[in-house]
Write a structure and sequence with these properties.
Blueprint lengths: L7 H11 L1 H11 L2 H6 L6 E3 L12 E9 L6 E9 L7 H17 L3 E7 L34 E3 L13 H12 L7 H17 L4 H14 L4 H12 L2 H28 L4 H8 L3 H6 L10
Parallel strand pairs: 3-4, 4-5
Antiparallel strand pairs: 1-2, 2-3
Helix pairs in contact: 1-7, 5-6, 6-8, 7-9, 8-9, 9-10
Length: 298
């Protein structure tokens, strides 16, 4: 089967890091030590909603995290912007400035900008906002008239993560993000490493729904029959009952996602023939799901 989900990266990252336990584990290692020292990480709260306008959601997704500060009892907010363009884009400076201003107006509390980057090319932009203007030596005095900030950067693809300690869930999450773009012959090896992590997670009582979502994401980003291949790998490592529970749910999620894509494609003028070819669905499945077929295609 050829599964291609619509914008799978942002959905996957947002879902994983919207879970409080996952966010606590991620930030405990991924924030700078000086921040971890003053924040009560275990009491973070994931704030509802998104600041990103519809026109930018193809490239960005975001989360806002509220942390109590140990020393004062006041709150600090971390604004996580997930960037999944192919390469770094200088627009990120203005995007961060805009969203941080909104948060300052709303909360009147410190805000730490945090970029989670998942692009093909290594991040090359400076971490200081003032660098956006590329001022020469004679012009640098102008920085006293402009806002300035440093953003934190997390790049699971190009950065060395060996010094960071995460639990099994976040380790599997980052492993998949790190190698999901891998088109080399190494991918089979990485897939086996991932399945071994997931089996360890199953045996330790981990969240099966998380594993299902992770497999759905993998199926949406690779040009291979990933469900059949993962079934083989799981079958070698799990009981028949465990495998059946996982794969039935995964296939249900895949079908749901493919139907959603088909609905979106048809609504945007893609021909029925192309939709059927790209999703692997039949006309009968589309009709049974209540998806409207354009009159000229019936």
């Amino acid at each position: 089967m050829d599964i291609k989900l619509h914008k799978p990266h942002d959905k996957f990252v947002r879902e994983v890091l919207s879970d409080t336990a996952n966010a606590v584990d991620f930030f405990r290692s991924a924030l700078p030590a000086e921040l971890v020292a003053v924040l009560d990480i275990d009491k973070l709260n994931v704030e509802p909603g998104s600041l990103i306008e519809e026109k930018f959601r193809e490239y960005y997704t975001d989360n806002v995290y509220k942390f109590p500060m140990k020393t004062s009892g006041r709150y600090l907010y971390v604004y996580l912007l997930f960037e999944h363009k192919i390469e770094a884009d200088e627009d990120i400076y203005l995007q961060l400035l805009k969203y941080m201003a909104e948060l300052y107006l709303k909360y009147r509390a410190p805000v730490v900008p945090y970029v989670f980057y998942h692009g093909e090319q290594e991040w090359w932009l400076p971490l200081q906002f003032s660098e956006f203007f590329k001022l020469n030596e004679e012009e640098k005095f102008l920085t006293k008239y402009m806002p300035d900030f440093t953003y934190e950067l997390f790049d699971p693809v190009h950065h060395d993560l060996n010094g960071l300690v995460f639990d099994l869930t976040i380790r599997a999450f980052l492993h998949l993000l790190r190698y999901s773009r891998d088109e080399s012959g190494e991918f089979e090896k990485r897939l086996i490493e991932l399945i071994d992590l997931l089996v360890e997670l199953v045996h330790s009582g981990g969240d099966i729904k998380f594993i299902q979502k992770l497999m759905l994401y993998l199926g949406g980003t690779k040009d291979l029959d990933v469900i059949d291949r993962t079934r083989e790998l799981f079958r070698e490592r799990l009981t028949a009952e465990q495998e059946a529970e996982m794969m039935t749910a995964i296939e249900s999620l895949v079908l749901k996602a493919k139907l959603e894509d088909a609905r979106n494609f048809l609504a945007n003028g893609v021909s029925l023939e192309i939709v059927i070819k790209s999703t692997g669905l039949t006309r009968e499945q589309l009709i049974a799901a209540g998806i409207e077929i354009p009159p000229e295609e019936r």
